[in-house]
Amino acid sequence: MRRFTQLRHKSPTLLPRPPQLELVCDHLQSRANLSAIVRLAGCFGLSELTLAGSTRVDPQIARDAAKTVSITRRRTLAPYLERRRELGYSLVGLEQTTDSDSLFEFVFQPRTLLVIGNERRGL
Prior knowledge:
By secondary structure, this protein is of the alpha/beta class. The protein has a domain at 21-96 and 108-116: 3-Layer(aba) Sandwich (Alpha/beta knot), CATH 3.40.1280.10. It has helices at residues 31-43, 59-62, 65-68, 78-86; strands at residues 21-26, 48-52, 70-74, 90-94, 112-116. Strands 3-2-1-5-4 form a 5-stranded parallel beta sheet, with helices on both faces. Strand 1 (21-26), helix 1 (31-43) and strand 2 (48-52) form a beta-alpha-beta unit. The chain starts with 20 loop residues before the first strand and ends in a 7-residue tail after the last strand.
């Protein structure tokens, strides 16, 4: 049986082409939630995240991604989302509602903006 060895702080692998997914967060309240999203973005090779709000990233939670994922802050997201849509991006909201599609069955289009809403108010 092969022995399992955990590798920590491994250098990121450069992707052959930029990811076709962008993350956008709308006024997240929790530093822990934002930091976990930044860490996830780093794992997926995303280099940028767009954020409305003033929540700060906790580097202990985000780990190395706190250094590799840059955050662009905006006062409001509506004008930014409209410009991205005009450039051909699909806008997808991550939300739990009675009529929402399962994330596991959803087919993402190339050039997608995944918008994550506020923990209490949603999108």
